[in-house]
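User: I would dearly like some help making sense of a protein record. This is the protein in question:
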Amino acid sequence: MKLTLIWLLLFCSTLSYAASPIKNLLERIDQGSSNKFIIEEIDSDKDFFELDQKGNKVVIRGNNPVSIASGINWYLKYYAGIHLSWNGMTAKLPDTLPPVLQKERRETEMKYRYDLNYCTFSYTMAFWDWERWEKEIDWMALHGINMPLALVGTEGVWYNVLKKLGYNDEEISRFVPGPAFTAWWLMNNLEGWGGPVSDNWYHQQIELQQKILKRMREYGIEPVLPGYSGMVPHNINEKLGLEVTPPDNWGTFRRPAFLQPTDPKFEEIASLYYKEMEKLYGKAKFYAMDPFHEGGSVAGVDLDAAGKAIMKAMKQENPEAIWVIQAWQANPREDMIKNLKTGDIVVLDLFSESRPQWGAPSTWKRPDGYGKHDWIYCMLLNFGGNVGLHGKMEHVINGFYDAKEQAKGTTLKGVGMTMEGSENNPVMFELLTELPWRKERFSKDQWLQDYTFARYGVRDTVIMKAWNILSNSIYNCPVESTQEGTVESVFCARPKEDISTVSSWSNTTMYYNPEDVMKAAEMMLSVAEKYRGNNNFEYDLVDIVRQAIAEKGRIVQKAVTAAFRAGNIEAVRALSEQFLNLILLQDELLGTRPEFRLGTWINYARNLGKTKEEKDLYEWNARVQITTWGNRDAADYGLLDYAHKEWNGILKDYYYMRWKHYFDRLNKIMESENPAPIDFYALEESWINQHNPYSPQAQGDVVNTAQKVFKQAGI
């Protein structure tokens, strides 16, 4: 009887593991690899993972699937030299895994590990299919994420809500935006831009979100669903006779109207919203709401009453729910949250590395931080999904431990990634997600030694020296800097004589020596033959050489301007030709990796369309977002090139085209002609409206191409 019972228990345990998300994760990483591990889930009040050994199998213990996945990732990186990242989520594990010679345990008091910005859903994820999302959710679990923002499919909720409020399909289509602009709609910044979307889009996104949430919940990840805080179509007063705060503008875009939470109709519409959300996606523990985002008017709003009404509506959906709110500019208004209960709010300190609001010295400092409310230390890092090396490596480490050690550290409950665009700078995201699992402050230099082993599977002194250079230059942006991401590539700028930025609000200055980047690129190239075929090395090689060529381009562009002002026509012609050649070399280099190809972005967009009309609309969304962003007025206002991309395809066909027109005009001026000003927007719009194909398939050998273009660039 006892033997039978033991056998049944073992059988049930094996059956449970066979169906577990961890086994499935391991099989997706490397088919058959789950047999090389022993997975043990143990109850604990604190998140933890342990690495251990039993015979020839590695043991990973943890208190839930996310903790266990974090342990798997830690083992793969620091024992096996295998780094799973956006540029590669599969690996060939050795037949016999490197043993864990001494049990290692890591635990964390940071119970919240948050991921994603509203903007990420548009700048990076706008056209993702389930195959890509499945990889991302695996990445989240491996990196300890347990509360990601989950916005996909919110269009379907709103469609159902507005239908029940009496709106017809045409009216709804003027409210719901196109797929590349959903983020700003959900932040109450605009409506309808990029649409109208078809019925197919609603159905596809609902189905996709249901798959996303199912997988997240299998892991025990708690999705942060969008809650309701008062957004309504701008014409709801005419349609239903509701008194609303008249819509103002976000830039040149008309915002949706705002139904004050104190209005008797607010509770009714909020209840309808949450019911439709629950029908499609179930209840959530966390809901994201950001009323009055980026200049939203609070005129005539009783902020205390508004906060309480928003909270009440959310709690009626789920009494245990928590409101997640971004700290950005004046949000969250102190009067709106000060009288809400402790534990009912989690504030995302959205730009902790540059503009902390939790109480540290900052241009946006709040002396009392968020008072009694819990908050999360976040790294924004990237704006607009722009391509470029950037970070505050040492400061991100020190800023986190400083926050923990301050008096307000008692309300610090986690870390978060709040990038506007992802799939860039993997070193920074790896660093941020490790902070919760490292109890003591640690050295950036020692961490980098271990990171390069994890990243490439080798300990190479040349690679380490290259990364040391980068970590002390381009990844060492000054603590006091508030610049919006990378020092942008001049190739992507709308041409003019003096260029310091590409996008309007980046305010970038050269905080590093460009020669350091060029030296690091040269060092990576010097060992490239040894690591030919190493996926992570080749990705980083392309990215670092890309940065070096961009630095060279900045130097040459300034030389063109100097020659023009000196009246040296021969120098202008020679230097402008050199500059244009650098763009083409950059284009060729980036074509060797699918992550840097325009075709990857465009084909994701077109593949979601069921009809030619849908494919064309989604492609138009994809093209306009990364160029003019909006119409002529919006571009002129400042959104032009905000989401520019230094990618293969757009470099050759779009940025090269703009610079060629500009240089031709300079030559005419120097030849005493009087050419008309260039209507750049007309040129840009012409490209946006095209449907010429771009392949997502990598072309050319990475190492050979990197060596060639580096030499031809004259670096």
